[in-house]
Amino acid sequence: MTLGTMTTTQAYGEPSYWDNRYANEAGPFDWYQKYPSLAPLLHLYITPHHRVLVVGCGNSAFSEDMVDDGYGDVVNIDISSVVIEAMRKKYSNRPQLKYIKMDVRDMSAFQTGSFDGIVDKGTLDSLLCGHDSHQNAAKMLEEVGRVLKDKGVYILITYGAPIYRLRLLRDSCSWTVKLHVIEKLLSEGSSEHKKWELTSVVPLDDGGSIEAVLGKNPDVHYIYVCTKDDSLKTGLKDESAVN
Asked: What H or E segment, with its residue span, contains residue 162?
């Protein structure tokens, strides 16, 4: 099941929905992409000594894989007490991993500027599929911007194309943003030709279109790397050139 096929009638902002889901879900599940596929991109923007927040962690093995890859401080939050308790027990011997029950729309337990990097793999999309979607997404992004350090990065992995996500990001915080993409169906180690290299920035035109680069309706996940920049007075600055 993908978030793109979910109805808007389900209460994705309600803990009870996720508690029930995780109580009945066997084994770990990763939304969209697993860590090995995304690791080359994370290495570009988040270093092992950085303090990282994974929002909407669920029962994913993503954070475990980050620690196995050398990251030393990975904080995970989820709205479900069921999954947080399960993950605390599972990783009780891994001090690099911390699990906290928390609503991403209210992260007041964290001080402003607490994290160098934030990873979001499906959480914003989940809110956008639920009730009061835009209000909840705005609350989440405001909190993401608050708990990030200046020059910290918010890495958003989503099915949402720029035409659907850039305005939302523009309205939420002072960012610079770079776009990357990764094929949805390209298996690990596949020799199939990639449309675009993961670590290469995708150019954006003024309207946020990438059709000239990737064609119409590319079968990709979009990755927005949003760097907090307190020196920007308003909005978001798009970077379309590779540094």
From this structure: helix 162-170
Give the chain's domains with CATH numbers: 31-184+196-240 (3.40.50.150)
Task: Give the span between the Cα atoms of 166 and 223, in whole angstroms.
Answer: 11
pTM, two decimal places: 0.87
Give tens-digit pLDDT for 51-99.
Answer: 999 999 999 999 999 999 999 999 999 999 999 999 999 999 999 999 9
Distances (CA, A) of 31 to 14, 54, 161: 19, 13, 17
29 within 8 A of 78, measured Cβ to Cβ = no
Q: Report the residue count for the chain.
A: 243
Q: Is 151 helix (H, G, I), strand (E, B) or coil?
A: strand
DSSP 97-131: EEEEE-BTTB-TTSPTT-EEEEEEESHHHHHHTST
pLDDT band at 9 (very low <50, low <70, confident <90, very high): very low
Q: Is 63 helix (H, G, I), strand (E, B) or coil?
A: helix
DSSP one-letter code for 193 = P
